[in-house]
Amino acid sequence: MARKVSIQVLADELGLSKYAVSRALSGKSGVSEATRQRVIELAKSLGYQKASFSQPSETGREPDAPSPFILICMRHIHSGNHSYWQRVLNGMLMSCDQQGLPYVIVSPELEAAKLTGEPESPQHMLAPHLDWTRCGGIVVMGTFPHSILGLVARAERPYVLVDHVDPLISCDKINNDNIEAGSIITRHLLSLHCTHLGFITDKAWSASFADRLAGARSAMDSPHGTEARLTEWRIPYGEPGWENALYQQFVHTEPDKRPDAWIGANDDIAIRWMRKLQTEGISIPESARIAGIDNVEASTLVSPQLTTVNLCKEELGGRAIEALLRRIERPGAPMESIHLSTRLIPRAST
């Protein structure tokens, strides 16, 4: 007797999830057009009879069955960052709109991950007000503590991390190539014959800061950097007035041990340090060269304009949604760690 052709049979034959096959057969959003056609062709060839094959509507939704939503986790501290995080978020939302996918944005409280003695589910601890039966997948933006990421991992939904890496969490990760960014800006300053580079950073602020410093150090290890040196200047980036404390450290450093070029771990650090030096009578770039990383709009509004490294923002968000849909369609596929390439933008500050 011929076996009954079910959604599970189709999923096994194609290496897809039952969710992806069901969405493809019903014409709903959440799967790529290429995947939809593969599913329909196999269903026809195997004689799948349960339902007719529908094409997606203009909205990608069926009136009697709302599309699953994408849950986007974003920290409150990033919601006001219009130059970077809001642009990454915009890329995600544009991609969701193009796919006809609804979305929900939440900011899981850090306290939610603490042990309370309550037998609550990870889903309830992350977002108790949501209907989790409709959650198709999760995107986690930026740095969250491992305890929060642990809840996401146990929420039984496909998920991806964006602009963050946690070695203890096994999932798809979408990042800018921060190591490349640190290396590019360092090599640029070395090409200008700078002999002592100061890297201003707060490694506790972001994993990307640590990667950028690692990239700078790797460039110093190249033959081009053997006669130059790199020093790390640490700041409490989240606290006001760090520029004044850093300047006091600078003036108490012997003149021959002061950097002749500076790299900010991001553009904001570089701009604030440049302004501090200028108020103290130090001209840029005549007395010191300064560069940043990010290419935010403010880098073109200062004088002199800031040399920087362009990092993709909207593209990073859009790529995250693509990765999540891939994970939904192919749950057994190998995990991916994607790094978007960067680009040097030389300007007058160097």
Automatic annotation (TrEMBL):
A Pfam cross-reference name: LacI
Keyword entries, A-Z: DNA-binding, Repressor, Transcription, Transcription regulation
Domain HTH lacI-type: 5-59
GO molecular function terms noted in the UniProt entry: DNA-binding transcription factor activity; transcription cis-regulatory region binding
Family matches, as InterPro entries: HTH_LacI, LacI/GalR-like_sensor, Lambda_DNA-bd_dom_sf, Peripla_BP_I
Protein name: LacI family DNA-binding transcriptional regulator
